[in-house]
Amino acid sequence: MDLWYTEKHSENVGITLKATRSLFSGKSEFQQLDILETVEYGRMMLLDGLVMVTERDEFVYHDMITHPALFTHPAPKKVLVIGGGDGGTIREIMKHPGVELAVLCEIDGLVIEKSIELLPSMACEIDGRNPRVKLHVDDGIAYIREHRDQFDVILVDSTDPIGPAVGLFEEDFYRLVFAALKEDGIMVAQSESPFYHAEIQKSMYGNLRQVFPIVEMYQAFIPTYPSGLWSFAFASKKYHPVRDFDRARAKNRGFYTKYYNEELHLGAFMLPTFARENIAG
Amino acid sequence: MDLWYTEKHSENVGITLKATRSLFSGKSEFQQLDILETVEYGRMMLLDGLVMVTERDEFVYHDMITHPALFTHPAPKKVLVIGGGDGGTIREIMKHPGVELAVLCEIDGLVIEKSIELLPSMACEIDGRNPRVKLHVDDGIAYIREHRDQFDVILVDSTDPIGPAVGLFEEDFYRLVFAALKEDGIMVAQSESPFYHAEIQKSMYGNLRQVFPIVEMYQAFIPTYPSGLWSFAFASKKYHPVRDFDRARAKNRGFYTKYYNEELHLGAFMLPTFARENIAG
Lengths: 281, 281
Description:
2 copies of one chain form a homodimer.
Chain A: E1 3-10, E2 13-27, E3 32-38, E4 42-47, E5 50-54, H1 58-72, E6 78-83, H2 88-93, E7 101-106, H3 109-118, H4 120-123, E8 133-137, H5 140-145, E9 151-157, H6 171-180, E10 181-190, H7 198-209, E11 214-221, E12 229-236, H8 247-251, H9 262-267, H10 273-278
């Protein structure tokens, strides 16, 4: 069978990938979950028909949602991930030996369960064996409302602002994140494609600037995401990701990162003109 | 009619774009040329079925093949473009008032002719009216063999290393380019996708290092190209693109660039780890 999966990135353009088989297809309380085996990108997880991660290019997203914040904060000990049920972000956090506790708060237990079963290279640290990792199957907003002054870093590893993640792009949520962070805490959130999602970015960065004194955008290339150019919002109470970055600590990190490195950390914040314009204050 | 054009970026993955009509389809002496009207990306030119340029994202490629070299060289006056028959690179060069002459050497006259007719936003400076622009419909290798110590900058705006462009990735060609450049000259050449074309990059950068004392890779994101992550080789006799870059001159450039800017110039050379590894010497 010649099976191709096509994701429309807009009404008029998409990516198409040859697949060999479906490993799982089912509906949770929150969304449709599919895991396909593709020829070029390995196993691929889709939520409501949108590509979330693939085995071949997940290293970019997970390096870049994690390491810029964890190498800007001088000593992150307690980290919260909202979303990220595939486990890739937790895997990267665990590479930092100074982190004492990483909490994963994912709304959809089925995503965690199927990732452990079918995406072990990502879910390797969320299978219950690592005492530095705690899982909560819960709504991120409800969870964060109950925590004050607790986390050094919060990573918002969400889907697009449709469906269950819509609240994660609003000012009220960022106020809860601000309160849940310690006095020198940092939040990073995925912030869509500068090429396709200018309006979402404008609104999201406007909301963040109402709450955090330091708000910067940085970029990464993710082949299976719309346009290939993706972005992250870096929102911080005290540390600036470029001016306060300790390049030597990042250089001597002692573990391999296939995308992130101490030079790229700085380069990622140097944006194309049109991306700057999307979030001009 | 619901018309979709799908380009395979490898045997197993591709991009698919909704088109409304074909504006031109024909065969030259060298290749198959098609120009389609797409909904998302405007007019799109294909050579042998591969996307060369689209109206919506061509600004990235043309900014990035042109301005890094022209803002690294302190006073470029004479510039040669090999390939680039759509005219977009010449258009960007013409924004530099210090350039006295830009020569376009394109092997395929049909590409020039149809670009002038159907892609006027790119071909606006190659229609014969600008006395600072000269066109040669000729093989780039033959042309460059006849020139010595002539150009400040040579931009190799080629197709992939298959078909007519294959010679443009070889050491013999780079020796001719070196000879055609003045003693402080710079060459920039498109150098494929770090994500899909590791082997081509390894060979190409190895060849360049046999010839030029300074060889660096830089990156740009181009949504319609394979993986979205594209690269350029910067090969130079004297000026280093980061250490010798005059940021103030680039900042005060006096014209708008939708992708390039003086910060991005530096950031573009800060590469992901896997891209560095492709060209590790």
